[in-house]
Amino acid sequence: RAHTLTVLFILTCALGYVTLLEETPQDTAYNTKRGIVASILVFLCFGVTQAKDGPFSRPHPAYWRFWLCVSVVYELFLIFILFQTVQDGRQFMKYIDPHLGVPLPERDYGGNCLIYDPGNETDPFHNIWDKLDGFVPAHFFGWYLKTLMIRDWWMCMIISVMFEFLEYSLEHQLPNFSECWWDHWIMDVILCNGLGIYCGMKTLSWLSLKTYKWQGLWNIPTYKGKMKRIVFQFTPYSWVKFEWKPASSLRRWLAVCGIIFVFLLAELNTFYLKFVLWMPPEHYLVLLRLVFFVNVGGVAMREIYDFMDDPKFHKKLGQQAWLVAAITATEFLIVVKYDPHTLTLSLPFYITQCWILGIILVLTWTAWRFFIRDITLRYKEIRRQKQEHRYEKDKCLSNGDGHSPILDEQTGNKLRERKL
User: In sequence order, which ranges of 51-108 are alpha helices (DSSP H)?
Assistant: First the structure.
């Protein structure tokens, strides 16, 4: 890394040289933005060369070190926004894009939910075509990439379905959540999310069956082989199949529940941040945030799985996992500070009842699976051991023919327990 430090030194000198050569504009806002961008570039260059490597090495460890440093920069930006007043924070977004900082127009996202509208003779299926916008492929590719991160069919489906229930529950707070029933369950869960999860699982199957035997680029004789090797540079160096096994222990069950909770909170933050910071859904900052989470989320999930699967070797949770958790929490704090009125709008009574019932069922199953069931099994095992001990003792005290009333009774009890 001595060469990379040399590059960092040259970059710093070049930035200083350019600053000295050009005439500094008499624009405080412009100079401030330029200074902040230059500072971030120097920090990113330092982090790419000196940060700790993560669990991934393809396409290059420096790529993942870059996203780790971007996580630090983004977290610092969120902390800065958190400590501003609501008005100043929204107007600060104008320094990023002059079109921001203005209230969003009111929009009706629910509308007419008829699949076939007989009142519209020219196009009775216009409600379906209106929903087929750019967010449909975004949903598909988003869940395809989430499946590559989570690597489990059931966890992906649970998160997908749970988020639709959250949209139902919170549509009185955000109009963005108000959708037709067929938009929720047919277009989102079955078509977009389901197809993305299916394609993601097929890709995971191919990656798990692929032979990972790497050869140097210059040792490959043919040009076709060299091109194939270059393409495979963007695939994993090796493959680890995630087996979460949430019901195997209380620790893993709580960890999986925590992962699902953080995923759902990060999804909700996407919509609430747009609402409180006055960002249109199609703004490029929203897309950049999703690209950011795709890159850092994969590393965080691998670090979490390694920590859960082998805690003796991975004694501490990875740095990227901690940063993702901190970023998600900070985004939520910004939402709470900037618009507490929206978040405190009370849930409808029937929705509150459904959530209370669901929480009670989850807690009841947790208590039965990891406490009551284990106590019952332990009691049966102790009882069986005692009966076997008595059986051996009676066998030693039996008469010459090898039979005794107590022995016959113990044998009968043992046979009945086996049948049960």
Answer: 61-82, 86-92
